[in-house]
Write a structure and sequence with these properties.
heterodimer, A: about 130 residues, mainly alpha, Helix Hairpins, elongated, B: about 525 residues, 2 strands
Chain lengths: ~130, ~525
C-alpha cells in the first residue's frame, strides 16, 4: 500500500470532517465531497499495489480489477448525491435566503417550554399548538 | 436457478423507467406503479415459498460465476423481509394514491417510489457487501427525493439533516467495505465468515465496529438516532409510514446479518448496552413530545432497541424472537403512521394539545384502527407485539440477561404511557369548535368541525378522507392481527430462519452445502 495515498486519504478525510462540522450548507456539501474522495482513494490504495493496472495481457504484475470497479461505482453515486444536495441547498436559499442549517423548530419549542404545563392540554392549548 | 429474485429488482426498476417516460400522464403512471409493486409482491411470495422449501437459493446475475459476477442470495430471513417489505410498499402506494387523488399531484412520485421498491428488494437479496452498499444508495437516493418532494420550507430543513447524515453513513459503509476487502480479499457474504475468522482479533473487531457504526446510523440506535425524529415527521404521512416501517428495518436487517453471520456473538456486551439505552432514550423522547407524528417517530427508535436486544442476548431462541419482532414491527408501525395520516388530513394537525382532539367521536372505526396497533406496540396480549416481547423476554431470562430484560419490561410500560398520551390528546374528548348539541352525529361531518378553527384551509370537502386510505389502513391492521393469530406457524418459520443464520453460510455459490448443515443444528 502506497504511503503517499494513505497519507493523502487521511488528510482529505480530516479536511472533509472539519468542513462537515460547519453550519453553512455549501461547506457541508464541499466537505461531503472531499470525504467521499478520501474513501475512494483509500479503496484504491487498499486494493492494488501501485503501478499495476488491471488490464489483461499486460506484461508484468496484474492488478485486482475489483477495487477500481468499486471506486467507479462509488464516484457515480457520490456525484449524484452531491448534485442532489446542491439542488436542495439552492432550494433552501431561494426559500429563506440563508445558507445555514436551521434548528429543529419543534425541538427548540419543547426545550424552551415550561415543563410544568407541558402535560396539561387545557392550559392555553391554542397558544402552544401554534409552532 | 429461478429468475424470481432478479425479477424482484428488475420489475420495479422497469416500471420506474416506463412511468418516468409517461411523465405528465398521472393515471397511466399510477396503473403502472400499482401493477409493478403488486407483481413484486407476487414474486417475493414465490421466493419465500421456494426458500422455505430449498433452504437457501442464489442466482448469479448474467451467468458470471461467483468471484466475478454479482450474486443474489435469499435465505429464510431475507425472503421473509422481502415479502413483508413489498406488501407494505404495496399498501402504502395504494394509500398514497387515495390521498393524492385529492392532494397534490407530483409526476415524480410513482417513478421514485418504484426505485425505492427496487432498492429495498435488492438490499434484502444482496449476496455481497458491495451490492448491499449499492442497494442502500439506491433506496436512500429515492428516499431523499421522497422526503423533499413538496420542496417547502419544513421539508427542505428536515431533508438537509436527513440527506447529510445518510451521506455520512454511506461514506462510513463504503469505508468499511473497502477495509473488509483489503483485509480479506472478498466481499461475498458466504465466503466472508471463513476469511474473517482467520484475521487477527483486533482487525476483525475494528471491521465489526465500523460496520456496526454504519448500519447503526441507518437503523437509528442509541447514540446515532437524533436525525430520525427530526426528519421523518416532515415528510408526507404515507412517505413517513413506509420509512418508519421499512428503512430503519433495512438497517436492522443488515445488523442482524453481520452480527449473526460475519461476526457471530462478538460485541455482545456493547450491543446489550446500546439496546437498553436505545429503548429508554427513545421512549422518554416520545413521552416528552406533544405531536402524534413525533411521538411515533421516537417510538421507532425505542422499538429498534428491542431488536438489538434480541441480537445481544444471542442464541437461536433470541434471534428467532428478534426476527418475529421485526416482522411484527413493520406492519404495526406502518399502520400507526397511516392512521396519523388520516387524522392529519381530517383535522389539519397532528398535535396532541388541541386541534385534533375528539377523533374517536368523529370516527369510531378510525379510533379502533389506532388502538389495536398501539396496544400491540405496547405489548398487550393477545396482539402480535405481546408474542414478540414474550419471546424476547423468555430468551433474555433463559440466558441470564436480567438487566436488559428488566429494562425492556419497564419500557413497555412507558410505551403504553405515551400511547395513552396520543389517545387522550387526539382521540378522546370533545371535538373543538362543536357544541354538545351536534355531538350526536358521529364521525360524518369532520369537515364542518374543522372549518371554524382552521382558517388556512377554507375548502372543507377537499380534505375528506378517501375510502382507499381507510381500506388500506384497515388491511394493514388486519395483517398485524393475522400475525398474532398465526403466531404459531409464523414463529416456527422465524425459528427455522434463526437456525439457518446460526450456521456458516457454506461454500461460495454452493447453497446446498450450507443447507445440509443448516437443517441439522
Amino acid at each position: 500500500m502506497s504511503v503517499t495515498l494513505a497519507v493523502l486519504a487521511g488528510v482529505l478525510a480530516a479536511v472533509g470532517t472539519a468542513l462537515v462540522l460547519h453550519r453553512t450548507l455549501t461547506r457541508i456539501v464541499l466537505g461531503l465531497g472531499i470525504l467521499g474522495n478520501a474513501v475512494n482513494l483509500l479503496v484504491l490504495a487498499a486494493g492494488t499495489p501501485p503501478g499495476t493496472a488491471p488490464i489483461i495481457g499486460r506484461s508484468g504484475r496484474f492488478g485486482d480489477p475489483v477495487p477500481p470497479a468499486l471506486v467507479l461505482t462509488a464516484i457515480v453515486i457520490g456525484f449524484g448525491t452531491i448534485a442532489f444536495l446542491l439542488a436542495v441547498a439552492y432550494r433552501s436559499w431561494t426559500i429563506d435566503g440563508s445558507d445555514e442549517v436551521e434548528d429543529d423548530i419543534e425541538d427548540r419549542r419543547l426545550a424552551e417550554a415550561d415543563p410544568h404545563d407541558a402535560d396539561d392540554p387545557d392550559l392555553d392549548a391554542d397558544e402552544r399548538s401554534v409552532p | 436457478m429461478t429468475p424470481w429474485m432478479a425479477l424482484c429488482i428488475v420489475v420495479p426498476l422497469g416500471g420506474a423507467a416506463v412511468s418516468l417516460a409517461l411523465h405528465g400522464r398521472l393515471l397511466a403512471q399510477r396503473v403502472i406503479g400499482v401493477a409493478a409493486v403488486a407483481t413484486t409482491v407476487a414474486l417475493a411470495l414465490a421466493v419465500l415459498v421456494q426458500v422455505d422449501h430449498d433452504g437457501r437459493i442464489s442466482a448469479d446475475l448474467g451467468g458470471w460465476p461467483v468471484p466475478i459476477g454479482i450474486t443474489l442470495v435469499a435465505d429464510r430471513l431475507s425472503a421473509l423481509m422481502l415479502v413483508i417489505g413489498t406488501v407494505m410498499l404495496f399498501a402504502v402506494l395504494v394509500y398514497a394514491l387515495g390521498q393524492r387523488a385529492q392532494d397534490e399531484r407530483s409526476p415524480w412520485y410513482v417513478p421514485v417510489y418504484l426505485v425505492l421498491t427496487a432498492g429495498v428488494c435488492q438490499a434484502f437479496l444482496a449476496g455481497d457487501l458491495f451490492n448491499l452498499f449499492v442497494s442502500f444508495e439506491v433506496l436512500l437516493m429515492s428516499s431523499y427525493v421522497l422526503v423533499t418532494l413538496e420542496g417547502n420550507d419544513r421539508q427542505i430543513r428536515a431533508g438537509i439533516t436527513y440527506v447529510v447524515i445518510n451521506v455520512i453513513e454511506s461514506t462510513l459503509l463504503l469505508l468499511a467495505v473497502a477495509l473488509v476487502f483489503a483485509a480479506t480479499g472478498t466481499l461475498n457474504l458466504a465466503e466472508l465468515p471463513r476469511r474473517l475468522a482467520e484475521l487477527p482479533a483486533g482487525v476483525a473487531l475494528g471491521l465489526n465496529l465500523l460496520l456496526l457504526l454504519a448500519f447503526g446510523l441507518k437503523a437509528a440506535v442509541f447514540p446515532l438516532f437524533s436525525w430520525l425524529p427530526d426528519s421523518y415527521p416532515a415528510a408526507p404521512s404515507p412517505v413517513t409510514a413506509v420509512f418508519a416501517g421499512l428503512l430503519t428495518k433495512v438497517g436492522v436487517y443488515a445488523i442482524i446479518r453481520t452480527q449473526t453471520q460475519l461476526f457471530p456473538g462478538e460485541l455482545r456486551t456493547l450491543l446489550m448496552v446500546v439496546a437498553g439505552l436505545t429503548m429508554v432514550v427513545g421512549v422518554l423522547g416520545a413521552i416528552a413530545q406533544s405531536d402524534m407524528k413525533r411521538i411515533l417517530s421516537f417510538h421507532i427508535v425505542s422499538q429498534i432497541g428491542y431488536m438489538v436486544m434480541g441480537l445481544a442476548i444471542g442464541g437461536v431462541a433470541a434471534i428467532a424472537a428478534t426476527i418475529f419482532f421485526v416482522l411484527h414491527q413493520i406492519p404495526t408501525k406502518t399502520s400507526l403512521f397511516l392512521v396519523e395520516g388520516i387524522v392529519e388530513r381530517e383535522t389539519g394537525t397532528s398535535s396532541t394539545t388541541g386541534g385534533a382532539a375528539g377523533m374517536a367521536r368523529r370516527s369510531g372505526p378510525l379510533a379502533l384502527l389506532f388502538l389495536l396497533p398501539a396496544l400491540s406496540l405496547a405489548g398487550i396480549p393477545p396482539l402480535s407485539g405481546f408474542v414478540g416481547k414474550v419471546a424476547l423476554v423468555e430468551s433474555g431470562f433463559a440466558r441470564d440477561a436480567w438487566v436488559v430484560t428488566a429494562v425492556a419490561l419497564g419500557v413497555s410500560l412507558l410505551t403504553l404511557v405515551s400511547m395513552v398520551k396520543i389517545w387522550s390528546g387526539v382521540f378522546w374528548g370533545d371535538v373543538p369548535g362543536r357544541t354538545a348539541a351536534t355531538d350526536g352525529t358521529l364521525g360524518t361531518d369532520a369537515a364542518e368541525g374543522r372549518d371554524d378553527r382552521d382558517g388556512e384551509r377554507p375548502v372543507a370537502g377537499v380534505l375528506r378522507r378517501h375510502p382507499l386510505m381507510s381500506a388500506v389502513t384497515g388491511g394493514v391492521v388486519a395483517l398485524t392481527l393475522a400475525i398474532a393469530l398465526l403466531a404459531g406457524p409464523v414463529y416456527r418459520y422465524c425459528e427455522r430462519a434463526a437456525r439457518q443464520l446460526a450456521v456458516p453460510a457454506g461454500q461460495v455459490g454452493g447453497p446446498a452445502a450450507g443447507e445440509a448443515r443448516g437443517e441439522n443444528p
